[in-house]
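Sample A.
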Amino acid sequence: MKQKKLRNARLCINKFKEKMASLSYVLLISFLLTACNTVYEAERIDASDLDNEPRVAFVRPDKYSFTIFGSRSIKEHVEITYERFSTDDSGYPLVELGLRNKGGQSFWDNKATNITLSIKTNFYKEIKPSQGAPVYETNWRQLRIVRGDTVHYKVLCPVKLANSYQIRISENIK
């Protein structure tokens, strides 16, 4: 009787081990598949597509996400509070942008993280950026945003001919 109970217990334990092993294989494979990055071929885009791009673009969104559930986007953590294009008192183009670190919006992302981003602005003579090269281009600048805070980014173009702009925001570029 004891041997029969012992054998049944061993069978149950072995079945449980087999189920756990197969579950761990499935989890391992799913984790490896989600950790892979997709690579796209670089190709020319149509000029009309470039003209329809937003003035503020988020690029290289690899760092600020949780691989399995996240959207893999910096926009998940950063919110644009305002965007203005004007001229200063001496007639030079001025761009102002407010960026707020809203933190992760998911239940698993509860750390009070600071985000360091790189930001670059291009100014164009034409309203449509596809019409030519930028007349002025800033260097990459670092912006450190504490969770919940808003950073006010201002850039002045020293070329009065600029009528349009595009801002690129990326992960921290060292």
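Sample B, a different protein:
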Amino acid sequence: MRRTVTDKRLTLIVAIAIVLNFPIRPLAHESPVDHVDRGIRIWIEGEAIFLRYQLQLSERAATMQLKDMDSNLDGAVSDSERDAFLGGFAANLANHLRMQIGERPLELKPAGRVELRPQFRQVYGFSAPCGALKSGSHAGKLRDEYSRNYPGMYRWDGAKERTAPGPRVLVTEAPRSQEASGHPAVLVLNFNVVVP
């Protein structure tokens, strides 16, 4: 009888050790990937190209940003803390957006204040000098390296281009994901600048 109790205890200890040492496949993950939807508008004014880049964050991502904004950890976000955070975020975002016309890369810089909108949307403005473009069609590309870690959908807004005189920016193919040597995909938008 004593041996049976000892065998049962030994079996129970071995079973617990097996359960604790082997990972169990979870049925769901704790924190889903934050998908970030984007609204894009590109236009030309004078000798500069402009990008309106709207992010629609998840509630979780927006909450995490609020935590990061509170730089003095007093539990409240002041206007200056918010502006400093968003200014730094815009500069970082500019470093992840690659634009070119033809084979010439353009260095996008933040332009104007970040606009905060309902439903966790943030609108960033960027611009870069592009020079005087000759009459005709000029191929362009926007490569969004930020989308590598924060995937989501693109929405193209060409309203400004349809109504404004002068050069027009037309999307030549739907935004698509493009893998780079085994790394996660990034979103690429191909467009044409048509100068009358």
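Observation for Sample B: The chain is about 25% helix and 40% strand.
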